[in-house]
Each structure stands twice: as structure tokens, then as C-alpha cells.
Amino acid sequence: MKKQLFALLACGTIAAGATIGLTGCGAGDNSITVWAPLTQQTLVKKLVNDFLAENEDFGLEVKVDVCGEDNAYAQVSVDPQASADIYGFANDQLMNLKGCGGLSFLSDVMVEKIKSTDDALAVEAGRIGDKYYGYPYAADNGYFMYYDSSVINETQAQNIGDVIAACKKARKYFIMQLETDGAWYFGSFFYGAGGKYDTEWDGDELLSANCNFDEFAVDVNGVASTTYTIGEIGAQAGYDVTHDKNGAGFGFLHGNDSVIEQQLSAGTLGAVITGTWNAAKIQSSLGENYAATACPQYTSSLDGRTYRMAPFIGYKMYAVNGYTKHVSQSHRLAQYLASETAQQQRFDSLQIGPSNLKVQQSDAVKANVALQALFSQKDYAVVQGPLPDTYWSVLKTFSGDICTGAINSENLKAKLAELIEGLEA
After folding, report:
1. Per-residue pLDDT of the chain (425 residues; tens, 9 = 90+)
2. How far apart are CA 319 and CA 80, in angstroms?
3. Where are the alpha helices (DSSP H) in 141-242?
4. Going by C-beta distance under 8 Å and a sequence separation of 6 or more, which residues neighbour residue 290?
5. Residue 351, exposed/middle/buried by CB under 10 A (0-12, 13-18, 19+)?
6. Cα distance between residue 58 and residue 252, in whole Å
């Protein structure tokens, strides 16, 4: 059997553990390097060992280094040729990684294989034009609603107004991060009313950005308004939610992860919109009252019609570096690291939501309350692609101004026009 060599290296700002044969990021003539997050180091080393044991003809040593999926482009773009042969990345970095030469496309045979084994949206999240550049392995990047079932019943959980009313009655909070850094969440009000935001890129250069928030809104039944735009419906919904609280302040509460933890400790969390990273602490706190569901619908105070929140959803995948010296071997290993076997182990050990359809249908995944809530939205969730910095900055400001009341019925149309102009700049 080929000797196996691992080296945990500092890549970017993260360093870890003991090192063997310490080198710079990137592989030599007789080895390849895999980047994986710090939390997945033990698992990825095991998977590589398993792969090498099953493929004694592989002929290369494998080094496992530390680099998070969220930091992939930041690292690869510094020097693609010196970067890992295989690395994990979040799909919203796809265009930028392609632009810097950091991606090798999958063969047609492999594309057909992953189309037959993995979630269709996850597979498409790795496509640029007619080529595919990623092996999907995680489908759990998004947000949905957790709630206390002793405060909110299943019917109430379907509408955000009913959720907040139940929280106020029970002197609890409905938490959503909107005031200080709410761009990621606030867009769901617009997208659920028919909003679209399309970008065109040349590598990491934005060529164009267009949104349709000035078009008429479309409700849950697919019926278009003749009076109110997507922007008006979405913005008004955000305003209504963020200002819905009783005299004692219960009801809506803006808050990040630390606020969520505080309210869990105080026993005053009724519901919260957040992601899978908070599942364990919420489940531990709520116990038998732990429940989760899709982001709720909302009834517009403007036209009385019902719209749904449409959250972002994202995927993680393995890439093969376009500059690797070992193309075929790297693709073999990358495919294995994203395989059904690997995804099952990734879920079992780390509760990472799989993109593989068989693993999604396993009893353990079906029993995972948070993942089932997330998966229930995929028919209408918005796949988060690459977005310019201006998207985040102008929507963050708009969301914050909605929360503080700086945007109100008197200046809403003017502020929406400024928002659209900023998004398309």
C-alpha cells in the first residue's frame, strides 16, 4: 500500500495541530494537497485514508491542510498555482474562483453521475455556462424558522404575523437579524414577492447587475398585483415585522447569534429565523418543545394578500484546481470526498446536511428537524450566487433604516428607488 502522508498547515489565518513534512500550500510532483475546514480535519483525514486503502494504485501522497470553505477564494486568488489541488468552497465564490484559474471542469461522465446522485440545485450551483466545476457535498447553507411548540402551533408557524402574535401573548420574542447586518435575511421579503437579482461576471469583474423590485408583486398563488410593486410589498412586510411588538417590548427582536443565546438562556425565545449552526443549542434549550419549519409566509398590510418569504440557500462543494499537476488523480479523490459514503460520514460525525439524495432520505437525516425545515424550502428558495459588495452594503443600510423607522410610508418609494439604483450600480 502507498505510504500516506498528512500535514496540517496554516493556510490563511487558521493554523492547527502537529505537522509532518511542513511545506507551503500546494503540492509537489509526488503528492497532492487537500484543503478542508478545521472542524473537518479528522473526518477528511479518515476519508483520505479510506480512499487510499481502496485505491492502492493511486500512486501519490496526500496532504490535508486547513482552509475553510468561506475563505477559499481569498486564499486561491493570492496564488492559484501554489494553492491546494483539491479544496472545499461555498458556491457563491464559483465565478471568482473560475476567473482566477482555480477551477478544473468535471468530465461529462462525472456530471451525469452527480446529476443522478445529488440534489439538482446543488449540482447546478457548480455550473458556469455548459461546464460544471464542483462536486457538491453539503446542502445546508441557508435559514429557516425554529420555534417553541408550546408557544406557537403548527398552523400559526405558517404565517409570520401569527408567529409574532403568539410570541407577544406568551411574553416571548421572535428574533431575526435585520437592523445592523440584515442584508442576507431581508432580501427574503423581496424574493418571496417575485423579486429577482441577476448579475453577469467576467471573472471577479461585475459586468452588469439588474433587479426587478420595481415590477408588480406576485403572491403565493402566482397572481400579480396591479397596484403594488415587489419593492413596496417586501419593504412594507419588513417594516411591519420589525415594528410588531407589545408595550413591554415582546414580539419582534433584532438579534444575532449572541442575542439568540441570551434569550434561550432567559427562556424568552418564542421563534427565530437562523440556520443549522444554531440547531444544537436551540434544541438543547427547548427540549421537547423544539420545532422548526420553513420561513413563514406573510400577509401584506398593503393589499391583504399572502406572500412567502423566499430565503437564500447555498451549497458547498469540492473543486479541483485548474493548475493541478495531477488532474485525473485529483478528480478521483475529489469525487470520493463528495461521495455518498463521505456525505453519510460527514452527517454522522458533524451533522452537515447532505446534497446526496440517498443520504437525504436516510432515517437519520429525516429525523433531523432543522435539516427537514431547510430542505422543505428548496422549491422556492433562491440559490445564492456571487453578489457584489454593493448588494450587501445598500441592502444592509436599507434594512437598518426600515428597523429604525428612518424609512416609512412617506419616503418609502423614494428610498426604494435609491435601493434599486444602488443594487444596479
Report:
1. 332 333 333 343 333 332 222 233 344 589 999 999 999 999 999 999 999 999 999 999 999 999 999 999 999 999 999 999 999 999 999 999 999 999 999 999 999 999 999 999 999 999 998 999 999 999 999 999 999 999 999 999 999 999 999 999 999 999 999 999 999 999 999 999 999 999 988 877 889 999 999 999 999 999 999 999 999 999 999 999 999 999 999 999 999 999 999 999 999 999 999 999 999 999 999 999 999 999 999 999 999 999 999 999 999 999 999 999 999 999 999 999 999 999 999 999 999 999 999 999 999 999 999 999 999 999 999 999 889 999 999 999 999 999 999 999 999 999 999 999 999 98
2. 12
3. 160-169, 183-191, 230-242
4. 146, 148, 149, 282, 283, 369
5. middle
6. 56
Nearest to 299 by CA among 121, 392, 140, 162: 162
The Cα–Cα gap between 182 and 256 comes to 10
Helix (H, G, I), strand (E, B) or coil at 293: strand
Whether the CB-CB separation of 22 and 7 falls below 8 Å is answered with yes
Which triple of cell numbers denotes residue 105?
471542469
The Cα–Cα gap between 374 and 146 comes to 10
Q: Which three cell numbers stand for residue 393?
A: 452594503
Spatial distance between the Cα atoms of 194 and 196, rounded to a whole number of angstroms: 7
Alpha helices of 196-298 — where are they, by DSSP H? 230-242, 257-266, 279-286
Rounded Cα–Cα distance for residues 113 and 238 (Å):
42
Contact criterion met (CB below 8 Å) for 359 and 340: yes
- Distance set, CA 12 to CA 32, 61, 77, 88, 399 (Å): 18, 23, 12, 14, 32
Beta pairing partners, 383: 313
H or E element, residue 145: strand 144-148
The Cα 107–Cα 113 span in angstroms is: 10
